Amino acid sequence: MARTRLYRDGKLELEGFPLPEISDHLAEPGTVVWLDLCAPTAADFATITEEFGLHELAVEDARHEHQRPKLDRYGDHCFLSMYAVCAGRGGEELNVSELSVFVTANALITVRPDDRFDMDDVVVRWDNAPTLTQHGVGFLLHGLLDQVVDGHFRAVQEMDDRIEEIEEGLFDADMGASQDVQRAAFALRKNLVRLRRIVLPMREMVNTLMRRDLHFVSEQMVPYYQDVYDHVLRVSEWTESLRDMVGSIMETNLTIQGNRMNMIMKKVTSWASIVAVPTAVTGFYGQNVPYPGFGTQWGFYASTGVTIAISVALYFGFKRRDWI
């Protein structure tokens, strides 16, 4: 599946033209081309290599998935590898989509292994900023980066909201719910670490794109890239703080469970002490030797009174200490 767009002198002129026509359009002055390939074949990679003169190492990286986020320079073009993120179930699930991007002087090529990342949202961004289309490839790349970084921002926002929910119910949860809290906190921490690996390289990537020697970003577009860079910094710092918060939640939850276990042990021990009193008294009076009150009615009343008195005294003593 391939999508194409042609901008001429800052205006959208053509859409949906075939790939073999790209080289003809690129030869025309003032044109900028966008090509999007979803689940491309080997023939598609061969076509774009020929049409755009891409470096074989960059094409090889685009063909193989699970690349690290990076920006590589190859003479007259650049290769970017990045990841779009969508958080589900309050951040406990993290859907990651890989995205490879080739940037030339007058073309932007995006390569997606699947359709999990919706390029329609990027196209809407481009169409909503018609005054910036005159800045060519820098404008197209900015819209793409802005959409990806906004996805990172929304994901970390959902994780933050989920962490606040866990914190609010942390001290009200019973023993069964504590395991759910621990499981959710572990999932959030795992996804935050994964998101951090995606976000941190974006800082260097966006910062490098703003360098003047690349000539992809015009002076007028630098403030827009600076805004994206600021969002990247906020997301990276946010993930760091949330990771610490999740760690604190896990430790606090374990401490609460330990305290609850201590309370249960105190109550069980207190009731066992009370139960031990009648056992001890009846055991003493159950001896097969004569003792005061042996074989008499008042001896039975005396043993019963001692049992009740000591048990009541222990109960109120434990109650005063909040052991029962």
UniProtKB/TrEMBL annotation:
What PANTHER family does the record tag this protein with?
Answer: CORA FAMILY METAL ION TRANSPORTER (EUROFUNG)
**The entry's keywords:** Cell membrane, Membrane, Transmembrane, Transmembrane helix, Transport
Q: Which family does it belong to?
A: Belongs to the CorA metal ion transporter (MIT) (TC 1.A.35) family.
Q: Which GO terms describe its cellular component?
A: plasma membrane
- Entry's transmembrane regions: 268-286, 298-318
Known InterPro entries for this protein? Answer: CorA_cytoplasmic_dom, CorA_TM1_TM2, MgTranspt_CorA/ZnTranspt_ZntB
Q: Which domain of life is it from?
A: Bacteria
Spell out the coiled coil positions from the record.
Answer: none
Checking Gene3D superfamilies in the record gives:
CorA soluble domain-like (3.30.460.20), Magnesium transport protein CorA, transmembrane region (1.20.58.340)
Q: How does it sit in the membrane?
A: Multi-pass membrane protein
Write one Pfam family the protein is assigned to: CorA
Name the UniProt record assigns to this protein:
Magnesium transporter
GO terms for MF = cobalt ion binding; cobalt ion transmembrane transporter activity; magnesium ion binding; magnesium ion transmembrane transporter activity
- Where is this protein found? Cell membrane
Keyword Cell membrane included in the entry's annotation: yes
CDD domains, per the entry: TmCorA-like
